[in-house]
Amino acid sequence: MSRPRPRRKGDAGPARLIALHKPPGILSQWSGDPHWPGLSSLLSLPGFYPAGRLDRDSEGLLLLTNDGGLQAWLTDPAFHLPKTYLALVEGAPDAEALEALRRGVTLADGPTRPAEARRIPPPDWRPQAEEAPGSWLELTITEGRNRQVRRMGQHIGHKVLRLIRWSIGPWTLADLPPGETREVTPPAWPLPPPPA
Predict the structure, then answer these.
(1) Beta-ladder partners of 60
(2) Selection from 10, 50, 64 nearest residue 183 by Cα
(3) CB-facing half-sphere around the CA of 128: CA atoms within 13 A
């Protein structure tokens, strides 16, 4: 069960934003469960809450904030905030498979928005891990459905074997080792409205 969103309070101080490089095998919530540890196994940030999620097996950028309004802005798909992922997939997606992602594919919960999708060389900065053979894709989406990138890969016939979120809007993983955090600059208030 996730914690309730914090509310903006006059005495809560300024909105703050922390970037975390979430390793795989960690839940995107403070408390763990009987099988998997939560964020509290990595750090202690009282009053901060995850703005969005990465599934247990995924790794990469997770933003944490002390401000409910900012948390809602970061996670609401109406704002079309781009999120870029690097995905190791089975096989070698051809031009037709990539074009399907660019047009948008229909998943069980409806069609996806068009994505940016391209093949890339294996990222030389990625954390060391055992990897099966496959191809690396860079995907940028403007939604955040449950396990969306994994389901998109399955839809085009290329199972996602490893998934790293590189960026959310202007914030990236650059020079941030797994399990480490850094404070980043939040957007200026008032927050931008949703696109027309």
Answers:
(1) 22, 165
(2) 64
(3) 0
pLDDT in tens, 84-126: 999 999 999 999 999 999 999 999 999 999 999 999 999 999 9
Q: Please check whether residue 55 is in contact with residue 42, taking contact to mean a CB–CB distance below 8 angstroms.
A: no
pLDDT attached to residue 12: 60
Q: Give per-residue pLDDT as tens, 24-39.
A: 999 999 998 889 999 9
Say which amino acid occupies 20: L
Question: Is the separation of the CB atoms in 178 and 41 below 8 Å?
Answer: no
| The architecture CATH gives domain 17-77+171-184 | 2-Layer Sandwich (3.30)
d(CA 52, CA 5): 11
Compute the distance between CA of residue 115 and CA of residue 185 in angstroms, rounded to an integer: 26
Catalytic residue list: 55
| Per-domain boundaries in the chain | 17-77+171-184, 82-168
pLDDT at residue 157 is higher than 60: yes
Q: How far apart are CA 51 and CA 39, in angstroms?
A: 13
* ∠ CA 27-72-44, rounded to 5°: 40
pTM, entire model:
0.90
At residue 7, the pLDDT reads 46
**Which pair of tokens denotes residue 188?**
């200026």
The domain defined by 82-168 carries CATH number 3.30.1020.10 = no
